[in-house]
């Protein structure tokens, strides 16, 4: 019976896997990756529940409860950092559960998945940090060649240099430092480990937030500005934000014959000849968007002001607050922009424009630093506790050694 069910669920999964892309081709939004991932997850969960039903146990309810906790938190408010932590907690509990189920069933599929996961983790442990350093140096070179040598473009290089110095010193520290001093040096790796967890949670929720599937019921789309070339020309990065909004504008227009209005948001910088929003409007007009469907917000200087001032313009134009809106920006900036929308009391989720792969590491690092600064008091307290713990340990080790 077990083999028959495995074959059936495998056939059902394969049918869905090949059907989903064809199904999505018939839709206005042709993206199929999210639905493929969802279909795999559903089939795998059904299979795991069947395996446990064979054992007459219900331990799958433990990871399921953590999944439900994440889903409840996420759909109640998508724009929260804690959602990344909750999802990773579900993954940790889920992987532990699958490990226990593997021991209980010796199921071939679970054995294969465990083998792949084990090899990946082993490679990560053996060369993960060194591979990361090599990748960061390579990425830094590419970014500097294509984007210039500004400080914002040097983040991957600075991180690579810092990690290189850490690896060298860490290799020799146990040989040249007494034990109590090594404990003091331990402040650095523990702090790095803490921030790596924070970054992983941030990256997790940033990726999950990319899967927004907004309905074609929007009244407005806010397009966030990002600076102009020579103070007057829309750069490619900003152009992709506008084109993402136009893509949704046309899709909703085709689906409902009721297109949303585009709100171009961006003020005039000190080195710019015109407000960003006016240049963005001209760009959209050249792409065939009617002028009556474009609003401009010309006073904002940052993303928070983008959200606040755009909200004011929308409320005036709509004649109330019961509107539906979303915003467009580049995918790396999507989640932090969502946080600013929340701070502005603007009920709007975002859709992200694609960004060149080489630009993403540097961009996500910049976003992460900005996120950390938004919650710097919390991080300072935790880093202070880490430092205090290691200083007390070092003092205890020093006096114990001195005493004996």
Q: Would you mind describing this structure in some detail?
A:
The protein has three domains: 2-120, no CATH class; 130-207 and 377-403, no CATH class; 220-355, Rossmann fold (3-Layer(aba) Sandwich), CATH 3.40.50.620. Helix content is 69%, strand content 6%. It contains 14 helices and five strands. It has helices at 2-25, 33-55, 61-76, 82-105, 108-147, 155-176, 179-185, 187-209, 236-256, 276-286, 303-318, 334-343, 360-374, 376-403, and strands at 220-224, 261-265, 294-297, 325-330, 348-353. α3 runs antiparallel to α4, α4 crosses α8 (187-209) and α5 crosses α6 (155-176). The mean pLDDT is 90.
Task: Give the SSE map.
Blueprint: H1 2-25, H2 33-55, H3 61-76, H4 82-105, H5 108-147, H6 155-176, H7 179-185, H8 187-209, E1 220-224, H9 236-256, E2 261-265, H10 276-286, E3 294-297, H11 303-318, E4 325-330, H12 334-343, E5 348-353, H13 360-374, H14 376-403
Parallel strand pairs: 1-2, 1-4, 2-3, 4-5
Helix pairs in contact: 1-2, 3-4, 4-8, 5-6, 7-14, 8-14, 11-12
InterPro entries: Cell_Envelope_Assoc, DUF218, Rossmann-like_a/b/a_fold
Domain DUF218: 219-368
Transmembrane segments: 6-23, 35-51, 57-75, 82-103, 109-138, 150-169, 181-203, 380-400
């Amino acid at each position: 019976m077990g083999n028959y069910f495995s074959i059936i669920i495998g056939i059902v999964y394969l049918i869905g896997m090949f059907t989903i892309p064809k199904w999505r081709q018939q839709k206005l939004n042709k993206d199929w990756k999210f639905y493929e991932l969802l279909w795999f997850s559903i089939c795998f969960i059904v299979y795991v529940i069947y395996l446990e039903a064979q054992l007459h146990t219900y331990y799958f309810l433990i990871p399921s409860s953590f999944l439900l906790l994440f889903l409840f938190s996420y759909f109640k408010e998508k724009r929260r950092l804690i959602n990344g932590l909750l999802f990773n907690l579900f993954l940790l509990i889920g992987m532990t559960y699958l490990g226990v189920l593997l021991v209980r069933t010796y199921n071939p599929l679970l054995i294969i998945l465990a083998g792949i996961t084990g090899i990946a983790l082993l490679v990560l442990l053996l060369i993960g940090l060194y591979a990361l350093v090599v990748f960061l140096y390579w990425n830094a070179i590419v970014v500097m060649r294509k984007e210039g040598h500004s400080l914002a473009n040097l983040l991957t290089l600075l991180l690579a240099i810092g990690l290189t110095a850490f690896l060298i010193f860490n290799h020799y520290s146990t040989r040249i430092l007494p034990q109590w001093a090594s404990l003091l040096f331990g402040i650095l790796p523990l702090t790095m480990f803490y921030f790596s967890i924070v970054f992983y949670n941030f990256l997790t929720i940033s990726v999950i937030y990319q899967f927004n599937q907004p309905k074609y019921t929007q009244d407005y789309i806010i397009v966030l500005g990002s600076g102009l070339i020579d103070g007057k020309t829309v750069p490619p990065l900003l152009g992709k934000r506008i084109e993402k909004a136009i893509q949704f504008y046309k899709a909703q227009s085709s689906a409902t014959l009721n297109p949303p209005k585009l709100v171009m948001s961006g003020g005039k910088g000190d080195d710019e000849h015109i407000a960003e929003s006016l240049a963005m409007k001209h760009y959209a007009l050249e792409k065939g968007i009617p002028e009556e469907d474009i609003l401009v917000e010309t006073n904002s200087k940052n993303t928070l002001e983008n959200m606040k001032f755009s909200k004011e313009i929308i409320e005036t134009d709509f004649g109330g607050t019961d509107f539906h809106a979303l915003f467009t920006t580049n995918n790396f900036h999507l989640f932090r922009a969502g946080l600013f929308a929340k701070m502005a009391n603007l009920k709007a989720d975002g859709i992200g424009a694609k960004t060149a792969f080489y630009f993403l590491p540097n961009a996500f690092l910049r976003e992460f630093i900005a996120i950390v600064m938004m919650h710097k008091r919390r991080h300072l307290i935790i880093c202070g506790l880490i430092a205090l713990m290691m200083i007390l340990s070092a003092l205890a080790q020093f006096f114990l050694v001195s005493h004996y």
